[in-house]
Backbone:
C-alpha cells in the first residue's frame, strides 16, 4: 500500500535520552580543600604576626635571667648586669615629680626574662622633677598673668604694691622671668595697687638739737 511505503521511507525518530544527573563530588574530597583554604591564610598571618610584628624575646631557655633594676642607680645596675654575665644599661632620661635624679624607673626586658650573654638592657632613668622657664608676664593684668603661670605648672602668690601704674597691672615676678624653676614652685606676682595706696614708711630721723617749729 502507498501509506505503508511512505512510512517505510521516513527515518525512524530518535528516542530522547533523559538528561544525566550531575555527578556529586564526595565530601571526603571537598572537606580537605575547604579546610586548606581556611587554614593556609591563617597560618601565613600568624607567622607574620609572630615573627615580624611581635618578635619573640632575644633569647629563651638557655639564656641569662635579667636581674631587677628598677629603683637602682645606673652604676648599681651596671654592676648587677656584669655579675650576671650581661652587658650594660642603655638609658633614656625622663622627668619625674618624685623619683630622685638618676633612679631607674623602668626596664626592658623585665626581671626574669632571658637574654644572651653580653646583651644590654634598656632602662628609663629619672631626670628629676620637670624644670620650667618662668614666662615674662610683666605688664599683664594680674588675673591673666596668674592664669598663664598656673597653666605652665606654677603655683602663684599675689601681692600689691603702690606704683604709678594701672591698678592690678603686673610690676614684676619673683623669681624673675626667664629663670628656670624646678616644679613644684611658687611664683610671686607683684601687682600695682594704684596711685591712692600709701606705702608704710618709717618716721624720719630727727637729730636732738634740731628745732621743729
Residues:
Amino acid at each position: 500500500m502507498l501509506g505503508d511505503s511512505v512510512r517505510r521511507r521516513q527515518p525512524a525518530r530518535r528516542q530522547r535520552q533523559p538528561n544525566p544527573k550531575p555527578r556529586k563530588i564526595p565530601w571526603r574530597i571537598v572537606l580537605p580543600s575547604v579546610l586548606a583554604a581556611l587554614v593556609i591564610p591563617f597560618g601565613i598571618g600568624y607567622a607574620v604576626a609572630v615573627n615580624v610584628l611581635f618578635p619573640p624575646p632575644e633569647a629563651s631557655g638557655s639564656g641569662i635571667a635579667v636581674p631587677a633594676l628598677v629603683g637602682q642607680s645606673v652604676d648599681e645596675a651596671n654592676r648587677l648586669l656584669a655579675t650576671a654575665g650581661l652587658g650594660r644599661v642603655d638609658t633614656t632620661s625622663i622627668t619625674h615629680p618624685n623619683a630622685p635624679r638618676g633612679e631607674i624607673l623602668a626596664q626592658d626586658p623585665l626581671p626574669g626574662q632571658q637574654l644572651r650573654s653580653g646583651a644590654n638592657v634598656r632602662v628609663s632613668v629619672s631626670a628629676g622633677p620637670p624644670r620650667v622657664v618662668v614666662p615674662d608676664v610683666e605688664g599683664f593684668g594680674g588675673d591673666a598673668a596668674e592664669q598663664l603661670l598656673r597653666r605652665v605648672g606654677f603655683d602663684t602668690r599675689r601681692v600689691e604694691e603702690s606704683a604709678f601704674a594701672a591698678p592690678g597691672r603686673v610690676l614684676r615676678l619673683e623669681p624673675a622671668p626667664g629663670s628656670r624653676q624646678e616644679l613644684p614652685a611658687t611664683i610671686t606676682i607683684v601687682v600695682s595697687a594704684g596711685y591712692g595706696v600709701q606705702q608704710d614708711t618709717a618716721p624720719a630721723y630727727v637729730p636732738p638739737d634740731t628745732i621743729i617749729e
Remarks:
- The chain has four helices and ten strands.
- The chain has a mean pLDDT of 78.
- The radius of gyration is 45 Å.
- The beta strands are 64-65, 89-94, 104-108, 114-115, 121-126, 131-133, 155-161, 170-174, 180-182, 186-192.
